[in-house]
Amino acid sequence: MSDVGSPIAELDTPALWVDLEIMEANIAYLVAYFRQAGVQWRPHVKSIRVPAIAHRALAAGAIGVTCATVAEAENMANGGIQDILIANQVVGPHKTARLVALCHRSDVKVAVDNATNVAALGAAAVSAGVVLGVVVEVDVGQKRAGVAPGQATVDLGQVVRATAGLRFRGLMGWEGHTRAIAEVDLRHQAITQAMEQLTDTADLCRAAGLPVEIVSGGGSGTYDVTAFHPGMTEVEAGGAIFCDVMYQKLGVQTRPCLFVRSTVTSRPTPSRIIFDAGFKTMPMWRESPSPVGLSGVQSMRTNAEHTQVELAAPNTQVELGQAFDFIVGYSDSTVFLFDTIYGVRHGLVETVWTILGR
């Protein structure tokens, strides 16, 4: 492990590090973008995981964070984050008890899509002596969780409002299915159609007397459209803080700042390079990482502890022991594999963050 103030060259490999200058510029860009759009920013932290990074987003203008699990929410609350949305259903007595306990420390909201779950959450909140915020998740085309748009959502919202221990806060939808549409205009059209289902349903809820404060949605692959859709109140894009190969392919306008540093451990042939980071630290599950400054890559594959790069032409310049940085392929499937993340500025380690709740 490198100490604070040490050169990045002294990091043992494989190591996960973030360029602090680029990350701060990404945060500033996103804050300005959402302000221009007239929506709040609630970044998802399922890849970020470090409360100190969330605090930097809050200091810049974010209103809170979005989490995927109770464990992530606990991590953020333990780190002093006061405004948390769990954009997922929390089911079962163990997780429900942990969820309502968080309400003693933070303003917590959770997504629901089932009346039985609503009743269980309400009973747990009453037992704990707290009021739990609730948003109804609307299925806007993702075909995962969520209630159908329209009257079904209104009906569940009324159940929430009538349940002791709960406070109806609004709606949430995730238009993630649109990211697979390659043609930009068609993707934008699909995002708009999905968000229309969400905001039209919010209007129906208000007409039925439900106090809709929150209309939440949008990810790092869709925020460019979702943020400007009338009726949205907040956007959950968080992966754009780090950016990665996947988000670059989706057209995200922030810059990659998260890297895995690896060492060349073998040069079996002039056209093959072996690195000391395999799928345990640099997975290719969603997107392949991209080596910085290495041209002519023909193919790349990972084993448990190795990455094997085949070059299109012989290269004798890459030497044994040489360090290379790889742009992370997909931060969600990478960060949790590490114990620490190094914050680097001007080639020096400025801070070392422990990755909690892995």
Counted by DSSP, the helix tally is 9
Oligomerization: single chain
Q: Please tell me how large the radius of gyration is.
A: 22 Å
Class of secondary structure makeup: alpha/beta
CATH topology of the largest domain: TIM Barrel
- The CATH class of the largest domain, by name, is Alpha Beta
In whole angstroms, the N-to-C terminal distance is 19 Å
Outline the biggest β-sheet. 9 strands, mixed
Structure at a glance:
29% of the residues lie in helices and 25% in strands.
Overview of this protein structure:
The protein has 358 residues and is of the alpha/beta class. The protein has 2 domains: 20-242, Alpha-Beta Barrel (TIM Barrel); 258-354, Beta Barrel (Lyase, Ornithine Decarboxylase, Chain A, domain 1), CATH 2.40.37. 29% of the residues lie in helices and 25% in strands. It contains 9 helices and 17 strands. The chain has helices at 20-37, 51-60, 70-78, 93-102, 115-128, 151-161, 184-207, 223-226, 245-249; strands at 15-19, 40-41, 65-67, 83-86, 107-112, 132-138, 166-173, 214-217, 234-235, 258-269, 272-275, 290-291, 297-302, 307-311, 323-327, 340-345, 348-354. The strands form 2 sheets. Strands 1, 10, 11, 12, 13, 14, 15, 16 and 17 form a 9-stranded mixed beta sheet that branches. α4 links the parallel β4 (83-86) and β5. α3 runs parallel beside α4 (93-102) and α4 crosses α5 (115-128). The longest helix is centred in the middle third of the chain and has 24 residues, at 184-207. It is elongated, with a radius of gyration of 22 Å.
